Amino acid sequence: MNAPLSHTQFKNRFAQQTLSFATRLLGGLAVAASLGTCALAQTNWPERPVKLIVGYPPGGPVDVTGRTLARFLSEQLKQSVVVENRAGAGGMLGADVTSKAAPDGYTLNFIASPTMTISPIVQRTKLFDPLQDFTMLGSVVIYANVLLVGPQTSAKTVAELTAYAKANPEKVSFGSAGVGSSNHLSAALLAQLTDAPMLHVPYKGNSPAMMDVIGSKITFMFDAIGTGKVFVENGQARALAVTSKERNPSLPTIPTMIEAGIANYEVVGWFAVAGPKKIPPEIVVKLSNAIDVVKRDVAFRKAVEDGGYTVDQANPKELTERVVREYKMWENVIIKGKLQQD
């Protein structure tokens, strides 16, 4: 048995226990106060300007659409939404900055789909994990491509184009905005699904590639409907099919790739808003609700539809599922086609 404590030892033991209890109590109160302040900050969000990073240069389609969204979103949030361009690596530099930002809702990314589902695979990036490092906040618009051939090309349908490619293995070529671009992979997918040999000719942008389609230096290319329809309307190119699941209102007489006989072919690009992972649920709800209100705004819809886009209603959960699905699809195309950069 232990010897009984002396009066002095008892007082010292009691004092130590009392101090320990007081320390734990004060610590608990401090944590509670901190959580209360955090919760209050989340409730009052946003209390200062929100930064919307665009990973592309000023004046391009992603930047223009992102600035349009920022203007309308500022009105809904009653706070400035400021666009900051962080161009480079197919949007990945801006995405990298976003993924490493504090998850407080004040740093967001206006992303184009290739940044999440194509570029990280092609470039073997270690900057971020597109499937793990982001909070998806809502899709904004979607867009489809259109398969365009020059006026001198004899093929009138996709079936005729692929048949010609099989019969003439070295004569069919397609242009793109560069290796790993959306229109590059749209054509690579067509070649893989039809087992038709087609030569890829990368350009520094869509415009020079389109000029060579018109001049019959290359056979075809996929271009965004918003810009491609101009060449169709003025007779400089012929549209064979659109890549969306349904026909596009801008080109209502042009069949989809599925209607043209290419089963399971659906390729659409999209622009969306994302933030770092672990953004508090209260802020996610506020942001996604604000984005939804903007998308219902008649003036916003007209602005983006005039640019060749379609407002997309995918919510954060649906957008997250889309990223996973498209990442896996393009990963198969890229690896099978040996398109990864060394």
Provide structural commentary.
It is a single chain. The chain is α/β, with parallel strands linked by helices. It has 2 domains: 50-143 and 269-336, Bordetella uptake gene, domain 1 (D-Maltodextrin-Binding Protein, domain 2), CATH 3.40.190; 144-242, Periplasmic binding protein-like II (D-Maltodextrin-Binding Protein, domain 2, 3-Layer(aba) Sandwich), CATH 3.40.190.10. It has 12 helices and 10 strands. Strands 1, 2, 3, 4, 5, 6, 7, 8, 9 and 10 form a 10-stranded mixed beta sheet that branches. β5, α7 (182-194) and β6 form a beta-alpha-beta unit. The longest helix has 38 residues, at 7-44. It is globular, with a radius of gyration of 27 Å. The N and C termini lie far apart (74 Å). The model is unreliable at 34-41 (pLDDT under 50).
